Amino acid sequence: MKTAMGLILGVAFLVAAPVVAQETSAERRIEEVRFSSGQVELAGRLWLPPGPGPHPAVVFLPGSGQSIRNLDLDPDPIPYHFADHGVAYLAWDKRGVRDSGGEFIPLPDTNASAQEDRLRVLAGDAVAAMRYLATRRDVDAARIGAWAFSQGGWVAPLLEAVGGEPAFVIVVGGPAVTIGEELRYSELADAARQRSRDGGGAISMPDLYQELEQARGAGADFGGFDPARHWKNTTAPTLFLLGEWDLSVPTARSVERLERLSATSPWIDYRVFPRATHGVAERDAAGQSTSLRTSSRRNTTSSITWG
Q: Tell me, what CATH number does 130's domain have?
């Protein structure tokens, strides 16, 4: 377990160095690829490190919305950063989006069963991507993991449930709470943002969580898909990277759940970045990268630079 968790900590913190768009390397390779998920053909892009490999790899599990392979960033710096540090990176247009076949499948706000059914489809697409990578000579089939962001954190715990065998999972800004609780928190955070814009002062995170608990006490629907039901069964080393000031995902509530999960599972760990937001990034007043210090349930700290 220590070796496996060390691997994903190494991947996570190595990639958490400054992320800056760079000129295309003469040795780095980018390929446009296609692979099948059931009857649906998905179109993606593969960023490969220099050299013949075989390289470790990650498949990207994006957040909500009609995501495409480069997230509409030109260029998207994160895949280049992975590749420049020896890790292949595969992303694809979501089904029903741009060059991928099938139909786009948004999550319903209610009905846990329907939510899980749709998340399983997305997990199946990710497993198909992993299986495609495993056929390549330049990828190490034993070291293919998942890099999940935001809503991708609800897809990740289903990878094993749909037949996947990820070597590791890294969840960035992903919720460990139910869909219902995350939606309610987002609504309260949006209202707090508006009050702040209207001259109400800085957003108070303690006040925001107090409002969340008041909503719970008043009978707000905190149901929906619950990722904890699946995380408790995982056998993949899993690391959550969370921002203390995330206004999309209730980090404090996620940490409470991760504490309970990690008490019985040796595979779950997390790091919290003080003053960091949903993208787990902190910037100073001038917009420059700053040094972040992470905390975890093991009371360890790691100073890194995040761009």
A: 3.40.50.1820
Per-residue pLDDT of 152-210, as tens digits, reads 999 999 999 999 999 999 999 999 999 999 999 999 999 998 998 888 788 889 999 99
Extended beta strands in the chain, E state: 29-37, 40-48, 55-61, 88-92, 139-149, 169-172, 238-243, 268-273, 290-293, 303-306
Q: SS3 for 57? A: strand
- Inform me whether the pLDDT recorded for 87 exceeds 90: yes
Domains of the chain: total: 1
Q: How confident is the model over 115-154, as pLDDT tens digits?
A: 999 999 999 999 999 999 999 999 999 999 999 999 999 9
* Residue 51 tokens, joined: 């050299």
- The model's pTM is 0.84
Which residues constitute the domain of residue 43? 2-17+25-178+224-306
Residue from 97, 41, 87, 43 nearest 67 by CA: 97
Nearest to 133 by CA among 125, 122, 144: 144
Alpha-carbon distance 167 to 270, whole Å? 17
Work out the angle at residue 146's Cα, subtended by the Cα atoms of residues 301 and 12, and round it to the nearest 5 degrees. Answer: 25
Two tokens at 283?
Answer: 């910037």
8 Å CB contact between 40 and 100: yes
Question: Who's near 65: CB < 8 A, 6+ residues apart?
Answer: none
Helix H or strand E segment including 113: helix 112-134
In a domain, 214, yes or no: no
pLDDT value at position 15? 44
Residue 194 falls within a domain, yes or no? Answer: no
